[in-house]
């Protein structure tokens, strides 16, 4: 009889408190790295300003990334398995109100470092977008079998990076990142609660 192989985490499943603490610690560490890099680097943080048009671009980009993720999730089986594993590990222990933190903390801290600091540090170029996007993808690696999720995170990083490069406003990727995280996490959580009810 053939044994079914369910993808098991290389790190154990976390509790709600552990996930929240991990998010907070990661956000603080990314902020510290960004601040130190700015302190010792010879460049300025990418500017960010409140602008209604660019805020709207951030919202549209976030919706676009979410829609693209949904399509890829349905069509690319390795990504679906990888995303399900990652989302179950991170989202399953969290309560619905916790998802606000999942939107805000990574959306702010990751954009500060990967777009706000790395793009100007590497010279506001396509190369800078690619380097920062690959680093962003690797940040989402939670195990050797998670390469499809890393590839998708790198692609998202490129979309966010190009939006920052074109707009010159860090607000655009911040809004897109927060919105993508919020929609994706709430959709997954609600979908899981409906599966449990059935």
Describe, in short, the structure shown.
The chain is mainly α and 198 residues long.
Give the topology, please:
Layout lengths: L15 H25 L11 H24 L1 H15 L7 H23 L4 H14 L7 H21 L3 H27 L1
Helix pairs in contact: 1-4, 2-3, 2-6, 2-7, 3-6, 4-5, 4-6, 4-7, 5-6, 6-7
GO molecular function: endopeptidase activity; metallopeptidase activity
Pfam families: Rce1-like (PF02517)
GO biological process, one term: CAAX-box protein maturation
Description:
Residues 95-183 form the CAAX prenyl protease 2/Lysostaphin resistance protein A-like domain. By secondary structure, this protein is mainly α. The protein has one domain (17-197). Helix content is 75%, strand content 0%. The chain contains seven helices and no strands. The chain has helices at 16-40, 52-75, 77-91, 99-121, 126-139, 147-167, 171-197. Helix 3 (77-91) packs across helix 6 (147-167).
Which features would summarize this protein structure in a list?
198 residues, mainly alpha, 7 helices, Rce1/LyrA-like_dom, membrane, hydrolase, protease, endopeptidase activity
